[in-house]
Amino acid sequence: MQKYKKDGDFSYALGTELTLELLQSHPQQVISVYVHSKQKDNEIYQKIIALCQKNKIEVIRSDKAFNIVNAKENCYIMGVFRKFTNDIDLSASHVVLVNPGNMGNLGTIIRTCTGFGIDNIAIISPAADIYDPKTIRATMRAFFRVRFSYFSSFEEYLQKASEREIYCFMLDGSTNLQDVVRPQKSYSLVFGNEATGLAPEFHNYGKSVFIEQLNTVDSLNLDNAVSIAVYHFVNLK
């Protein structure tokens, strides 16, 4: 047991709900499950133990392990799993995140996208680490349901993705989100990072879009902007 490393081969699902989702969706990737002495013998615990037995996964009882990975005080079960790839469907609609820097925001965005039915996330590097336990915990189980791929640049992403409509969300966008009509083919909703947004050259990709707001704030939080945009697009008639 050791602290999470970005360049390592494994990560952690911290908490009962995350560990259960991991065991249900990717049991072949699970290395072991750790149980704290404070864990109650409840229904979800019994489900986890049963899945471990079914898939011949070692259950280790150790309080020290939770201190090593800096688990939160109320975390009494964690699953250790090998990092796996679940590449995006290049023909589907995508949310594209250009250089997202905050792991909590990345996790929340993944949760939002899967909640509204967009389960393909393209991430342009450099970017926050999707495998970090902080990101995974913020997804509230959605990490194990989403498809994701990292790309070295937006140009690389465009070369690999199928023909599609591109919508770049920018404060100085040319089109109000409310005026966007339903795309006739797959689309990509593109967002910049929390600090700087998208660079000016993104005006040259597809259609630049802005979310109308009052001037009482400079901009919306990234995960709020993604939530508004995704909700709008999935409800277009």
Describe the fold and architecture.
The protein has helices spanning 16-25, 43-54, 64-68, 103-115, 133-138, 154-160, 222-234, and strands at 10-14, 30-35, 58-61, 77-82, 94-98, 120-124, 147-151, 165-169, 175-176, 187-191, 207-210. The protein has 237 residues and is α/β, with parallel strands linked by helices. The termini are far apart. The protein contains seven helices and eleven strands.
Helices and strands in order, then pairings?
Blueprint: E1 10-14, H1 16-25, E2 30-35, H2 43-54, E3 58-61, H3 64-68, E4 77-82, E5 94-98, H4 103-115, E6 120-124, H5 133-138, E7 147-151, H6 154-160, E8 165-169, E9 175-176, E10 187-191, E11 207-210, H7 222-234
Parallel strand pairs: 2-3, 5-6, 5-10, 6-7, 8-10, 8-11, 9-11
Antiparallel strand pairs: 1-4, 2-4
Helix pairs in contact: 1-2, 4-7
Please describe the structure with a list of short key phrases separated by commas or semicolons:
237 residues, alpha/beta, 60s Ribosomal Protein L30, Chain: A, Alpha/beta knot, 2 domains, seven-stranded parallel beta sheet, 22% strand, elongated
